[in-house]
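Justification of resources, computational component.

The compute hours requested in this renewal are based largely on the per-chain cost of generating structure records like the one below. Each record pairs the submitted sequence with a full structure-token output. That output is archived, and it is also reused by downstream analysis tasks.
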Amino acid sequence: MRRPELPAGGLWTEVRLVAQTGSTNADLAAAARAGAAEGLVLVAEHQTAGRGRAGRGWSSPPRAGLAVSVLLRPAVATTRWGWLPLLAGVALAGSVTRVTGLAEVRLKWPNDLLVGGAKAAGILAEVAGAAVVLGVGLNVTQRAGELPAGATSLALAGVPGPDREALLAGLLADLADWYGRWQDAGGDADRAGLRVAYRSRSATIGSRVRVRLPDGAELAGTADTVDHDGRLVLRTGTGVRSLAAGDVTHLRRA
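The structure output for this chain reads:
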């Protein structure tokens, strides 16, 4: 893969491309703590210790996926930072749709991209001091035997010869656009148009779901919306809950 050309004066200041690393998120978190500036991008052709939510491992054959992390230093209240993984999802969904022409590209709250109902990408946001590292792992050319159950890749979804360079360039362009809008709006997702954009891409809103909470408890109900702070609003048999975190399973309708 070649490094994408970066527009002068834009958000991204440097793209580092490495053949292999443990985790692009871990590398950029260390760089952030060492004082690295906003706009640093790290892309790995192969991750040996990639991570998903709740510390789950994530791996892919070399050059079969897109593993990229970006370093951000948001100039908005930390209470608004919960929107960043959702913002990354909107950017990823838009760029994948535009580059591949796929129609059925949706988002599962809070951090999965679905293609044809199957997981094609995950997003991980980590706070590192005054910075946030956003990591994206997108399945591009993997074959069925190289993926866990319930996952897919762009190639399996019918994209002929998916172009990782075009996907990376598109993702960085859309991330910069949405991050700029969100920052200009002071982190207000409504003023930035982000909440509307997220809802239009959501496969979770309106669905019956089961949510496993960080403490191990489970809730079931209907996902009504995503609120002003990016929390999932779940209507259960005992009332309405607003959830800031959790693992969501979409349930089949009876």
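The radius of gyration is 17 Å. The longest strand covers residues 118-128.
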